[in-house]
Write a structure and sequence with these properties.
It contains 17 helices and 9 strands. By secondary structure, it is of the alpha/beta class. The protein folds into 3 domains: 1-101, no CATH class; 105-157; 161-404. Strands 4, 5, 6, 7, 8 and 9 form a 6-stranded mixed sheet that branches. The chain has a 3-stranded mixed sheet with strand order 2-1-3. One of its GO terms (molecular function) is transposase activity.
Length: 410
């Protein structure tokens, strides 16, 4: 059996006092406390290995010590070479300092992950750590630290969901990601739901090469597999085939196409000099008292502008079925569902963090950062939407049969 070298506390104390008088720092590069931390860690790891070998022996598994290994460890107490014994079978997994961990302070790792989640660059984080902890950290080490959120992210992305959601908003963001020597586009699909308690929740985050109804179908299928049985109203943009994709998985869901998206789409085809007058005539269409009045105003809009601008008018006719869903409800609910602004507001918060990133190094790097932003933003989603009790009572009248079972179970 190897003889562990005893730590000379008296010598350490004398060297530490001498170092203090010489102006050496307690922590940081060449810190006074580094030898003490090195000893504590090596002693703890030796004890863990001894216990592991005893367990192996009791279980009838042949195992023993098999030489020593070392790795450079960084800590707020300084940088040092940590020497530990290995086991022959390689089954020993230390707890106090895992095999691949190179930084000894959970607080520092949490701080690094927090800074990464705020969108700081690798250079800025490295500079911060150097200034605050007198520690040099490489880009590879930073990546290793931030990778620690991946298991939590994967668990969050596959977590069970509630059985019914009052409103669900579906939209996506586009980013650039490096793939080998080229840069490709990625679409991050986000599904933001409002539960029957009135609170917001990002139900899912998915990654694809581009936005399309076919991929949305797989997204909706995943939501169903995670426990979603019903969606009362789904709010979407004008993507072709989107309503059909939703209807295939949640056939009872009412679909509201975003009116704001339709307005923007219409104005792209209107000359700048006509936009103000066109908008003045378009407002009565979506601000009408009910669906019938809205359609009548649409006909009047067509009569005045249809010959000059047939394309935007045709867009309203083609999408009228889903553009006009919100007319069934009173002003409070109309305000919530006539646009996908809720999820777009979330996207704006994400982009505040990601806008400086340019092209991400990988799909995983992109998802890690978006996930961290989600966790921070969603901390504020604790209160229900404004006038939620009144909204829920109106939804109960409209969807009584579908809500009874869910409210009873809730």
């Amino acid at each position: 059996m190897e003889q562990e070298e005893e730590f000379d506390f008296e010598r350490f104390k004398q060297e530490a006092i001498k170092g203090l008088y010489a102006g050496k720092p307690l922590n940081g590069d060449k810190g006074i406390f580094a030898p003490l931390l090195k000893h504590f860690l090596e002693a703890a790891l030796a004890g863990e290995l001894e216990a592991h070998l005893q367990e192996e022996k009791a279980a009838g598994k042949p195992n023993r010590k098999n030489g020593r290994t070392s790795k450079t460890v960084k800590s707020v107490s300084g940088e040092f070479e940590l020497e530990t014994s290995r086991d022959r079978t390689g089954s020993f997994e230390p707890v106090v300092l895992p095999k691949r961990q190179l930084i000894v302070t959970a607080e520092l790792e949490e701080k690094i992950i927090h800074l990464y989640g705020l969108g700081l660059s690798t250079r800025d984080i490295t500079k911060y750590v150097k200034e605050m902890y007198q520690m040099d950290i490489s880009a590879a080490t930073l990546s290793t630290i931030t990778d620690k959120v991946i298991p939590a992210m994967n668990e969050w992305r596959s977590r069970p969901l509630e059985s019914v959601y009052a409103f669900v908003y579906l939209d996506c963001m586009h980013y650039k990601v490096r793939e080998g020597s080229s840069v490709v586009t990625r679409a991050v699909y986000n599904i933001l739901g409002v539960s029957l308690s009135g609170t917001k929740e990002l139900m899912g985050m998915y990654l694809s090469e581009s936005e399309g109804a076919k991929f949305w179908l797989s997204v909706l299928t995943d939501l169903k597999s995670r426990g979603v049985e019903d969606i009362l109203i789904a709010c979407i943009d004008g993507l072709k085939g989107f309503p059909e994709a939703i209807g295939a998985i949640f056939p009872q869901a009412e679909i509201q196409t975003c009116v704001v998206h339709q307005i923007r789409s219409s104005l792209r085809y209107v000359a700048e000099k006509d936009k103000k007058a066109f908008m003045a005539d378009l407002k009565p269409v979506y601000q009408a008292f009910n669906q019938e009045e809205g359609y009548e105003k649409l006909l009047q809009l067509d009569e005045k502008w249809g010959k000059k601008y047939p394309v935007p008018l045709q867009g309203w006719y083609n999408n009228w079925e889903h553009l006009s869903t919100f007319f069934k409800y009173d002003a409070a609910i109309r305000k919530v569902i006539y646009t996908t602004n809720i999820v777009e507001g979330f996207h704006r918060q994400v982009r505040k963090v990601t806008k400086t990133k340019g092209a991400f190094t990988s799909d995983t790097a992109l998802l890690k950062l978006v996930y961290l932003v989600v966790q921070r933003v969603s901390e504020k989603w604790t209160m229900p939407l404004h006038n939620w009790r009144l909204t829920l009572s109106q939804l109960y009248i409209m969807f009584e049969d579908r809500l009874k079972i869910h409210l009873k179970n809730g």
